[in-house]
Design brief:
This protein is mostly helical. It has nine helices and two strands. It is 59% helix and 2% strand.
Length: 214
């Protein structure tokens, strides 16, 4: 039986945490830590997510359902102190960047395959680790392709195609759809000057419209 387990239902299998193995719980209702392959980091434990948000009641609830993290005082304050440590923040930053990179690639792959539901679910997962503006750009890809991809089998997931759609909507004064397209272009090709100009143009038009309606 694994050392540090809170109950006798916790069973350790495979390698140790120190050399990249994983914990599994074949009995009871304990929460598992999943080891990923290749460049992907482990999935973050719910108790860690809750501690990062400062949700003490949630952390307290999850304490008895989660395997102890080696070297961490297994209490509400101990876990919150752990996630606020500089060492954790640096490790978490690196893992977050890896997760974002992996999920963005998966998202674009699913969109290219026209698996829009899978792409939408991946996009929701991205929301946890991305800043609001950049996540909104990727969410806009899903929205615009879902809007038009179901109507056409020829729609491609690239900035040029979406820019063309957006310009058409802009000329017809469908500004909300044009903005979706502009943000999608920024996600797909953020260094493209045409995409930047189009994004700026749409936002300026909508800002002027909003100011005039006040």
């Amino acid at each position: 039986m694994a050392s540090g387990c809170a109950t006798s239902n916790c069973v350790k299998a495979g390698k140790t945490d120190d050399d990249g193995g994983c914990w599994i719980w074949p009995r009871g209702s304990r929460i598992r830590r999943i080891q990923r392959d290749g460049d992907e980091p482990d999935e973050e434990l719910p108790i860690v997510c809750a501690a990062k948000k400062g949700w003490k009641n949630v952390v307290k609830t999850l304490l008895i359902h989660t395997n102890e993290i080696p070297g961490v005082e297994w209490s509400v304050e101990g876990i919150i102190q752990y996630v606020n440590s500089e060492q954790f923040k640096e490790t978490n930053r690196v893992e977050r960047e890896i997760r974002v990179d992996v999920l963005k690639k998966r998202l674009l792959r699913e969109l290219e395959l026209k698996n829009y539901l899978a792409a939408d679910l991946i996009c929701k997962a991205l929301h946890v680790d991305m800043d609001t503006e950049h996540w909104d750009w990727y969410h806009s890809i899903c929205s615009i392709l879902l809007m038009y991809g179901l109507r056409s089998t020829f729609l491609e997931c690239n900035a040029e195609t979406i820019h063309y759609i957006g310009m058409g909507m802009f000329k017809q004064n469908h500004d909300e759809i044009a903005l979706l397209a502009a943000k999608a272009c920024m996600a797909l090709d953020p260094d493209n000057e045409s995409c930047k100009a189009f994004h700026f143009l749409v936002k300026e038009k909508m800002n002027r419209a909003a100011s005039g309606s006040r």
